């Protein structure tokens, strides 16, 4: 709990990207991803250009390449899907190293791999430079319905509560002579999952009522003049604008 | 191979189809927001947060279903039983949005697709089944647990077929549809059983200890005439 409300993908650094207002970053990443996805898959060098842009952002944000590469492995299941496409696809086939591969499948595999990787890297950069609290604040300022931000706020609080209560219950089991082994933990987990849920609820209910008693009305207090300055919007817009430039150049070239 | 080991990524389904489903998801969620406002009282607000956190946590449990195939739980049925269809759909969507933005899980442009499958199709199927099953089964913790188990299995399979529909409309490569459909359904029956067991134990425990928290049982609750004293 001492770590505040950071999340595992947040990278505490001092950089211009970290200082940008969250809503600005969310919009920039959203636009970037949309442009990447609508780029035709055969514009190979455009994807290279996008990668260079992300590398520039990563350098500005002082996020190490190895850190990004390690977290990008979340994409692996999809890459595995992509690898099988050339073998199962239909249509025209080419022979490569004695393997018969479908051209459509090869293009499809490249499509998934390129767009998936760029999307994951962009999201990772957003996550690395934005705390959870800031993200919710950003969504709130983007006029996201209060119901969403409210659920999200409680969800983030409860994640800590759940993890802590689960740990306490495990320590309590250990203290009573329970000897967990690899798979046999599942049974204890299954038996205690309902209890965990109730314990966490009652803990959180008290917190919620305490918040309501102190004037909470579904939204965390904010200052009146907390809109992101135009300079920040301009700075963040450079990513989607550059991306759109590359996409246009590729489409015309 | 299972494509929901993680949510749908960018580039699996083409742009126009993704956009159509994004619009569909936004419209459907806007409707849910309107409906949810009436539901979201002091008891449901923290419950919605907890359900979302719980779904977030269980979606991280990727379990190996077949060699090389893993899948995760969806949690729609659990949400429907505890917080109702409208808030439930919003809970699952919130989880998906946060996972997409902060954990890079699922593509940003595929968010509409993921929300349609897991938050809308999954919870809608779950809700219909829960309402229908509760007519037949006893309104006891055991009956509710059985309802959760059955509804989970079917709603997870329905959600997985949502992906098949989207892939049929805008898949970026040619793969045989019956094959995808069969693989997805087969894998998700197993996932559904896992999900059903977790949902059933959770819901049964909650129904036993705090039946006032179970949304699905609200309609069957007898109105209690509380005498409010003059001091209150």
TrEMBL record, chain B:
Principal location class: membrane
Keyword set includes Transport: yes
Transmembrane among keywords: yes
UniProt cross-references to Pfam families, sorted A to Z: CbiM
Subcellular location: Cell membrane
Name of protein: Cobalamin biosynthesis protein CbiM
Keywords: Cell membrane, Membrane, Transmembrane, Transmembrane helix, Transport
Domain of life, source organism: Bacteria
Annotated TM spans: 12-31, 43-61, 73-98, 118-137, 144-165, 185-209
Recorded topology in the membrane: Multi-pass membrane protein
């Amino acid at each position: 709990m001492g770590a505040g409300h950071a999340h595992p993908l947040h990278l505490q650094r001092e950089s211009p990207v970290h200082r940008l207002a969250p809503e600005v970053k969310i919009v920039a990443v959203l636009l970037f991803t949309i442009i990447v996805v609508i780029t035709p898959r055969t514009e190979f060098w455009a994807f290279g250009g996008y990668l260079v842009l992300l590398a520039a952002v990563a350098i500005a944000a002082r996020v190490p390449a190895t850190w990004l590469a390690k977290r990008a492995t979340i994409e692996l299941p999809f890459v595995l899907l992509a690898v099988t496409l050339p073998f199962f696809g239909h249509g025209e086939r080419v022979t490569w190293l004695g393997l018969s591969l479908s051209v459509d499948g090869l293009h499809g595999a490249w499509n998934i791999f390129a767009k998936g990787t760029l999307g994951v890297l962009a999201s990772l950069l957003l996550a690395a430079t934005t705390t959870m609290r800031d993200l919710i604040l950003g969504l709130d300022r983007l006029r996201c319905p209060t119901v969403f931000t409210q659920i999200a706020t409680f969800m983030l609080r409860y994640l800590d509560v759940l993890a802590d209560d689960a740990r306490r219950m495990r320590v309590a089991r250990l203290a009573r002579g329970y000897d967990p082994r690899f798979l046999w933990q599942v049974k204890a987990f299954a038996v205690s999952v309902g209890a965990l849920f109730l314990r966490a609820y009652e803990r959180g209910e008290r917190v919620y009522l305490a918040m309501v008693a102190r004037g909470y009305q579904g939204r965390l207090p904010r200052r009146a003049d907390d809109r992101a300055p135009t300079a920040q919007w301009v700075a963040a817009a450079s990513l989607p604008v550059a991306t759109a430039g590359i996409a246009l150049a590729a489409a015309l070239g | 191979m299972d494509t929901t080991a993680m949510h749908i990524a960018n580039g699996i389904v083409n742009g126009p189809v993704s956009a159509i489903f994004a619009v569909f998801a936004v419209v459907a969620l806007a409707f849910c927001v309107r409906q949810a406002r009436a539901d979201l009282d002091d008891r449901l607000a923290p419950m919605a947060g907890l359900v979302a956190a719980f779904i977030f946590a269980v979606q991280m449990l990727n379990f190996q279903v077949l060699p090389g195939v893993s899948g995760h739980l969806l949690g729609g049925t659990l949400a429907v039983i505890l917080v109702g269809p409208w808030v439930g759909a919003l809970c699952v969507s919130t989880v998906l949005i946060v996972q997409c933005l902060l954990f890079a899980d699922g593509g940003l442009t595929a968010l509409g697709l993921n929300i349609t499958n897991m938050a809308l199709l999954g919870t809608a199927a779950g809700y219909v089944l829960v309402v229908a099953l509760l007519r037949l089964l006893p309104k006891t913790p055991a009956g509710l647990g059985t309802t959760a188990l059955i509804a989970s299995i079917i709603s997870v399979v329905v959600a997985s077929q949502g992906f098949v529909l989207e892939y049929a409309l805008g898949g970026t490569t040619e793969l045989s549809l019956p094959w995808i459909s069969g693989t997805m359904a087969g894998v998700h029956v197993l996932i559904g059983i896992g999900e059903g067991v977790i949902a059933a134990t959770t819901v049964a425990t909650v129904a036993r200890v705090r039946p006032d928290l179970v949304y699905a049982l609200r309609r069957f609750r007898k109105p209690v005439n509380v005498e409010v004293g003059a001091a209150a």
